[in-house]
Amino acid sequence: SSDSARLETSAIFLLNGGEETYMNAAHGFLTQHPWAEDVTQFVNIESTGSYGPDVVFRSNSDLLLNAYLKAAKSPRANVVFQDIFDLGIMPAETDYAVFAHESAGGAKSRPSVGADTARYGDLPGIDIATMFDSRSYHTAMDESKRMPDGCAQNFGDNVMAIVLKASQMMGASDDGGKEEAGAGGSLVYFDVLGVFVIAYPFWVARIVHCVPLALTTALVAAMKIGGVEVPVLEGATTFLLSCVGSMLSPVAFFGLTGLLVQPMAWYGRPYIAAMILVPTSIAGSFMPYVFTWTRQKALQAVASADAPALQNLLVGHSLGSSLVLSLLSAYMTISGGMKHMAYMFVIWVLSTHSALIMKQVYFRKKPSRTRRRRIKDGFDTFDVVDTLVMHLPALVVCVHMSLFGFLFFLDRISTMGSSMDWHGPAHADMIIGLITGFLFFVSFGPLVPFLAYHFAEGLAKAMYKARLEAAAAAGETKPTKVSKGKSVKSKAAASQEEPVAVPGRASCVLRCAGGLLLLCVASVAAALALIRTQEHRNSFSAHNPKRVFVQRLHVLKGGRPPSGGSTYDDAIESTSLTMLGVDSVPLGNVLEDMEGASALRRSEPGPDHLLAAYPITRFMKDSASVAMEAGEGERRQVLANLPSLEVEASKTGGVKRCAVKMSSPFAGYYLVNVTGPASKFSFSENDGDALIPSELSQSGEPTYAVRHVSNELSGGDGLDWVWWVETEQPEAELRVSWAVSNITSTPYLDEVVGRLPDYVNPIPITTYLGRFEC
Q1: Separation CA 741–CA 451 (nearest Å)
Q2: Is the distance from CB of 448 to CB of 388 less than 8 angstroms?
Q3: Burial 109-127 (b: 16+ CB within 10 A, else e)
Q4: Nearby residues of 345 by Cβ (< 8 Å), 6 or more positions away
Q5: Helix-then-strand count for the chain, H and E
Q6: What does the pLDDT read at residue 73?
Q7: Can you tell me the distance from the alpha carbon of 194 to that of 273, in angstroms, rounded to the nearest whole number?
Q8: Would you say 434 and 260 are in contact if contact means Cβ atoms under 8 Å apart?
Q9: How far is the C-alpha of 722 from the C-alpha of 69, rounded, in Å?
Q10: Cα(662)–Cα(660) distance, integer angstroms
Q11: Stated pTM of the model
């Protein structure tokens, strides 16, 4: 091979299938495999959707990030996604969190590396993922034919490039590319249309991200010293209200559509979402400016075509918006909250300042013979096109990021579950509305003061022209000279001139606000017309299915498996079919559309019936239980697959230990939930930290949830799970609920799945549920 394709260090390729069981496989490699000690950097190849451009969305390694920026053939990276993950609002994780020893909140789980953290990774690494088409992700529709040509090849090219380049950089370094824990991740980076990536160290960001505040403050101070009065405070207040409006308006309209019409009616149809969200975001962002520009002073300036007064309003509002963005940029950078994404605010502030300076310096010069006239009717010709051109760099960077984010979150949020409060059915709709409103404001919000000015300027010109035409029709003397918005008339005409009539504020507000509301209503109506044409009364289709967790549940009688030779009735207390919705649309439609629905008796799942799905149940609470008795064939199968349980309690030195051995004849997914004053588990015996409860029970007692996956790779012992739990209160009882699930298909599950409507993608499992006290 050529020198450019030669590895200078060893590379380990870890292929695991345990991420969806809460990163058990990554944890297993780091805690049990001898090679784990030799790893100094890692690249996590991730997928949050079945296709799309591969994007670097997290990194705590400057070495790997620099390798990617230097070598990737089609670089796409944006630190905004890292900031979003750092907030901890994404109910999703990747193996990166285990390798890098970081939680979803982005902070190190423990401050130091030592014996107490030896079981976890503390490695510098990078997270790269494809992000589109989450609708088919983990469904039967996740097929290669849905992937655009070249998608997998581009991903492979970029990954190969980063591995080779990183290996060369590590081989050339004295320490083999080792980075101290937490030392990396200090770059601000973003790509420009997928062509190239701009990146700079965070120490540079601490300076650059605070420069806009200094510039804006200096401009405001200079104007104050020069005696130029501009409404900066009014501009800042209006801009903040515009930001709020751009987010609340789509939340309201999108949420009402979900509540009153159909939840997630946009699922698999991003154009329907855009038809509602974009116009409502526009209306919400412009509405505060309607009230600002209809104040008496502003209306007087418009009615009298007072160009300097209108320009002062523009300068004040633009500087006000710059002041808000500058303060946000400096605060975010210094405080550390969403610290990287402040680069977008920096670009907007610099763009705004440039536009104001060009308007004053270039567009107000005296015209030359070779250039078009720039002064017209008292106004310069700084129009909408000029505004867009001056803000083009900011638009390219921010719109590209926002469009990508909109498509990603539209897919992702729809699969993240719901809360069943009053807004439950519209939960995803409202979240998408809020995110889209924010993305819209980041992309276009700073343009709104300019566009509001252009509208007022155009109206002023039209009114001035109308007065001229009226004067000409009446035979009055026309203005003889127009300069900087002031009309010089003959003395006769001036003596007879009547005051300019100023439109009433109420009528102006009603017209402008009414127009914006009409835009919203029209867009919603058009979207509803498209919704009515979809093939199902639900939001889903066979091409974009609904995920449903389908569990055949067998509750063990007495909480424990019986000894050999028992009958089904001796072993099983109850049998049911439990469903859990994995999105914001209630399960009622699915049950109604299921074959034989009239014979089903729906009820709420009993205690611990959804234990096998924990912790998904934290944010996916739409569930249903249907009583379905087992037939003779299924009864025989249940008995053949019964798990076994052995429990032994002992007391030593004021500590009670419960030793447990669980076994199943199949490779199973275990979930154990211990309620009570537990002090230590066998899995944490080398950890000096106190146990952290998973959550609190209804009675306020701590509960500790533990997941384990058994396998056949280690022979018969791999199907056994041996563990213990201790309590320092020997007289207290530890209550243990446990579930073991088999994902292997059974004839009964196949029959049930076959009765589901075609727009459902089932996730079927068979679960045994037991309880015991120790």
Answers
A1: 59
A2: no
A3: eeeebeeebebbbbbbbbb
A4: 209, 212, 325, 326, 328, 329, 332
A5: 22, 22
A6: 83
A7: 25
A8: no
A9: 47
A10: 7
A11: 0.79
Helix (H, G, I), strand (E, B) or coil at 263: coil
Tokens 């990163």 correspond to what residue? Answer: 23
Question: What is the pLDDT at residue 504?
Answer: 76
- The closest of 50, 67, 83, 147 to 401, measured between CA atoms, is 83
Measured CA to CA, the distance from residue 26 to residue 20 in angstroms comes to 11
Tokens 């409202």, residue located: 430
Q: What is the pLDDT of residue 27?
A: 81
Structure-token match 């008795």, residue found: 629
Q: Is 690 helix (H, G, I), strand (E, B) or coil?
A: coil
User: pLDDT digit string (tens) for 429-444?
Assistant: 888 898 899 999 999 9
Q: Are 350 and 212 in contact (CB under 8 A)?
A: yes
Residues 537, 261: Cα–Cα separation, whole Å: 11
Nearest to 484 by CA among 669, 653, 310, 259: 310
> Which positions of the chain have pLDDT values less than 50?
1, 103-119, 181-182, 366-375, 417-420, 422, 479-497
Query: How far is Cα 681 from Cα 660, in angstroms, rounded to an integer?
Result: 11
Q: What is the pLDDT of residue 696?
A: 66
Which of 574, 710, 703, 725 is CA-nearest to residue 643? 710
Half-sphere CA count of 556, side-chain side, radius 13 A: 23
- Looking at 100-231, list the stretches that DSSP marks H as alpha helix, in order from N- to C-terminal side: 151-172, 202-208, 211-225
Helix locations, 269-421, DSSP H:
270-293, 296-303, 307-335, 343-361, 384-390, 392-413
User: What stretches of 553-644 show up as alpha helix (H) in DSSP?
Assistant: 568-571, 588-593, 632-640
| pLDDT for residue 345 | 94
Q: Is 549 exposed, middle or buried (0-12, 13-18, 19+ CB in 10 A)?
A: buried
H or E segment to which residue 627 belongs: strand 623-627
Per-residue pLDDT tens over the stretch 554-606: 998 887 777 766 788 888 888 888 888 877 677 777 888 887 766 667 777 87
pLDDT of residue 249: 93
pLDDT one-digit tens code per residue, 14-63: 888 766 666 778 888 887 788 988 888 899 988 877 787 888 888 888 88
Q: How far apart are CA 75 and CA 88, in angstroms?
A: 26
